[in-house]
Amino acid sequence: MTSALRQLSATTWAWVQDSTDWGFSNAGVVSSQGVSLLFDTQFTLDATRAMLHEIDEATAGSAIRTVVTSHQNGDHSWGNQLLPEAEIITSRASAEHMCHEITPEQLTALSHAKGVDSTSRYAARHFGNFDFSGITVTGPTRTFTVREEMTVGGVTVELIDLGPGHSAGDVALHLPQDGIVFAGDVLFQGGHMIVWSGSLAACVESVDALLATEADVFVPGHGQLMERAEVVDFRGYLTDVQEAAVAYARDGLPLDRAAARVHAEFAGSLAHPERLFTATAGAYADAGAMGALQNVELVKGMADLA
Hints:
Layout: E1 3-9, E2 12-17, E3 27-32, E4 35-39, H1 45-58, E5 63-68, E6 87-91, H2 92-97, H3 104-111, H4 118-127, E7 142-144, E8 147-152, E9 155-163, E10 170-175, E11 180-188, H5 200-211, E12 217-222, E13 226-227, H6 228-250, H7 255-266, H8 276-286, H9 295-305
Parallel strand pairs: 4-5, 5-6, 6-7, 11-12
Antiparallel strand pairs: 1-2, 2-3, 3-4, 8-9, 9-10, 10-11, 12-13
Helix pairs in contact: 3-4, 4-9, 5-6, 6-7, 6-8, 7-8, 8-9
């Protein structure tokens, strides 16, 4: 697995991972007139340090004054402590969801439990090689709602509160002058989407909000950069899954059987097709066939489907 800092404009870079596996997330930086804004940190302290080193070299030591957190999942926020002087901003909904997130200590214990149940095996396979030692979960110092415009040196950026979708509260960063959007986990490239919010319809609405920016370049939370047409295709994939899952819900098919059928139909060549369990559960909740599942139930469903 390799990572690279890719320059997208005179003032904007994307930190892009070549892996679609769990925990390897993208990030980005906007730098102008000696100050920078960082969009998301990394899963571990070492990974965040490596990214910050590359950013420091690319921006000639520009000071990171602001960190925008797309959502509270650890692979986008557990490196925040390495920027103690920066203001950390996220949406109010994202901040309120923070207390429901698994902690580094809990994830370490789960992935090293050597249990025989499907959840323990799944955690060990995907998270057992990460070193979460030394992490102090560091939340936002400020929140916002709806939209907020900021200036980074001489660059105007827009923070967009997308509401629930991938998570209970997602944030995107839009650079209107450059036609660039950092989407966080509202977009996945090369892998199936995870739906933690309990609503697949909300995920589609979030993608619509990104498309409404009229941007041409999109940085997904995981995978390679996306052009506008690829985001449109991603929306189509979500709506196709939604329509199939809702039909199964209306037929009264149990969730596990519906998820297996959705998996068989839509797995394709994308990584982690077991995540379709979360999409199916979100569609079932949207259809009123059941309530939203807790994260622990979603992880078990994915592990059983994998």
